[in-house]
Amino acid sequence: MPRLYYALDLRDDPAAIAEYENWHRPGVVWPEIVASIRAAGIEDMEIFRTGNRLVMVMQVPDGYDSAGKQAADAADPRVQAWERLMDRYQQRLPWARPGEKWVPMRGIFSLREALAASTVAGRGERQ
Length: 127
What we know:
alpha+beta
């Protein structure tokens, strides 16, 4: 199953960051949000933070329809209420496109691919 990675910043305010983290604790995040994530076919989702930078990791099935998820979210009043609430804490990355919140990340290194390449080359010597 593919993994997708996204980044977003929070306002650089310790109190706001603490509130944002609280909203994402088990039992606090709205059940409708969890249901909408699962309804989209997302197998797993995690959000990590360092400073005010967030990274979201999504495990999705082959053929995952991100446009379909976005359309379903736009049509769901409860998801939209959650997004408005989260917007109080979030700030867009400077390079985000208009209307884009979570910016897709591009992988630049994979140990698995590096090991496979060194095996194909016939040796794992460092250069």
